[in-house]
Design goal:
The protein has helices spanning 26-36, 64-77, 91-104, 129-136, 147-154, 162-166, 169-173, 219-232, 237-253; strands spanning 12-20, 40-52, 55-61, 80-85, 108-111, 142-143, 180-183, 195-198, 203-206. The chain has 278 residues and is an alpha/beta fold. The strands form 2 sheets. Strands 3-2-1-4-5-6 form a 6-stranded mixed beta sheet. A 3-stranded antiparallel beta sheet has the order 7-8-9. Helix 2 packs parallel to helix 3 (91-104). It is an enzyme of class 2 (transferase). It holds the Pfam family Phos_pyr_kin. InterPro entries: HMP/HMP-P_kinase_dom, PM/HMP-P_kinase-1, Ribokinase-like.
């Protein structure tokens, strides 16, 4: 069944991801970011993590048939304009999600290839990376890897500087997505936190001042969700990415206003009440 893809009064965004019991990343962060940027969030949970600001202690994948039932439920009733995909845990879930994306054909697909948490915990089984590359990434309008994820996807070394980031461009294009946002947040020695928006024939650099804070839990989840939200509201890809970058930069800048946990705390999704950037 194919649902209409035209923009509606209510920009509905589906997040397909894992649940973070600590509330800082995953489904919880996605819903906050989509809501804060003016979208309506619905969700499909792929895994339940036992997680807090200090790390992940357990992961329970949701049974495949129930992931499929959740996807059918939301797509059959809601006019979902954009989909954000995060943590998928294993190959079977990746295949199921890819099949449903092909079946329902949402207008926009944003894939955050979640592999490693801010704490360093592995969130994607290593044997699932090839499935992700073959089944899901070629369907995406944009994928949003950080530097370790970019390295895992391409087989290249993790970049240590912006020149080495640029050396990934050709290999990232070969993954088949329409565009790639390569995030430079892991270059912690740099004064700026710069990302590369890799399009078919061009590369745009998005610059932002680096914020000194340990409270960056859920940054990648929130950025990709914000991009999906802005796409659902009718922005073109480059504008949606620009607005998403602006949103997450502000959320990080205000992160220390929150007091959540003893480890890597969350970003401040609602740093200015209902935050809709234009």
């Amino acid at each position: 069944m194919t649902l209409p893809t035209q923009q509606t009064k209510t920009p509905i965004v589906l997040t397909i991801a894992g649940s973070d019991s600590g509330g800082g990343a995953g489904i919880q962060a996605d819903i906050k970011a989509i809501s804060a940027t003016g979208g309506y969030a619905c969700s499909v949970i792929t895994a339940i993590t036992a997680q807090n600001t200090q790390g992940v202690s357990a992961i329970f994948p949701i049974p495949i048939e129930h992931v499929a039932h959740q996807l059918d439920a939301v797509f059959s009733d809601l006019n979902i304009v954009a989909v954000k995909v995060g943590m998928l845990a294993d190959s079977n879930i990746i295949r199921t999600v890819a099949e449903k994306i092909k079946q329902y054909r949402p207008q926009f697909l944003v894939v955050d290839p979640v592999m490693v948490a801010t704490s360093g915990d592995l969130l994607l089984e290593t044997d699932a990376i090839s499935t992700l590359k073959s089944e899901l990434l070629p369907l995406a309008d944009i994928i949003t890897p950080n530097l370790p994820e970019g390295a895992a996807l391409t087989g290249l070394a993790i970049p240590n500087n912006e020149d080495e980031m640029s050396n990934m461009i050709v290999d990232l294009r070969l993954l088949g997505a329409k565009s790639v946002l390569l995030k430079g947040g892991h270059l912690e020695k740099d004064e700026s936190s710069n990302d590369l928006l890799i399009l078919k024939d061009t590369v745009d650099e998005l610059r932002a001042k680096r914020i000194k804070t340990k409270n960056t839990h859920g940054t990648g989840c929130s950025l990709s969700s914000a991009i999906a939200s802005y796409l659902a509201q009718g922005n073109d890809l480059q504008k949606a990415v620009q607005l998403g970058k602006q949103y997450i930069s502000e959320a990080i800048a205000h992160a220390d206003e929150l007091e959540v946990g003893e480890g890597h705390g969350p970003v401040n999704h609602f740093f200015n009440g209902h935050t809709q950037l234009r």
